[in-house]
Specification:
Largest sheet: 8 strands, mixed
Distance between the termini: 46 Å
Order of helices and strands: EHEHEHEHEHHEHEEHEEH
Number of strands: 10
Strand content: 5-15%
Helix content: 40-55%
CATH superfamily: NAD(P)-binding Rossmann-like Domain
CATH topology: Rossmann fold
CATH class: Alpha Beta
CATH architecture: 3-Layer(aba) Sandwich
Number of helices: 9
Oligomer: single chain
Structural class: alpha/beta
Strand order of the largest sheet: 3-2-1-4-5-6-9-10
Amino acid sequence: MGLCEGRVVIVTGAGRGLGRAYALGLAAEGAAVVVNDLGVGGAGEATAEDPAGAVAAAIVAAGGRAVANRDDVADWESGRRIVAAALAAFGRLDAVVNNAGFVRDRMFVSATPEEWDAVMRVHLRGHFCVSRHAVDHWRAEAKAGRPVDARILNTTSGAGLQGSVGQSAYAAAKGGIAALTLVQAAELGRYGIMVNALAPQARTRMTEPAFGAAMRRTEGGLDLYDPANTAPLVAWACSADAAGITGQVFELLGGRLSVALGWTDGPAEDRGARWPAAEVGAAVRRLLAARPPPKPVWGG
């Protein structure tokens, strides 16, 4: 019996790359999967492709359960339809993996309002719309006295945790998702909903053009950036075994799994009185010298 036997999971952006690996991995662990993908290109442009249908068909051909969904995660009514698709096909919903997204890489001085809004829409609003409708369902179940053991797994990024040169919109959106995860975890635990986030490091349409040959690195025979490496962590995070784990950001590269520390209080000096402006600079330099160095900005 797989780790996710009997559970029903929505995976957004599941037609390619990481999302595809997640959907296949969840199905292999026994989950029924709603494979959501709008079929757009790497920058969000329209295509005639149907990757959601292809992944759902592959799961069914392997003996699993899956349905394809082609709704836009960032549209409010589409988010409702994605959740309804899970309930109609499988009679329940246990987890949402918010994975859909694209990039519009641009140095800040060249970024346009249209590009900024498009990235914010798919990442931030996309995480909101699907999860809000899922939470409405789970909250109603809890209020009706039916047990809820639900999961939301959000997708942040190293770009969101420490910044990335040339990706101001993407980094800002992914940083917002990390903060959203903390708030959701604090608010939704009372209903039986665990909320965590993942900052994946994998070879995808978004990362390969930027990082090139580095995305092909191997170590001890392991393809470090293979999207399939992350699938077992996603399956676990959606499983009953993840009960009680909430408000965390996980990172995984190859076989190295880590839990992010997040923002926390650093060194401090208490003067016991209001600081004179002329003394602030020296105090700040002492504090910076006393704290551990931060991870560098990607590409910096």
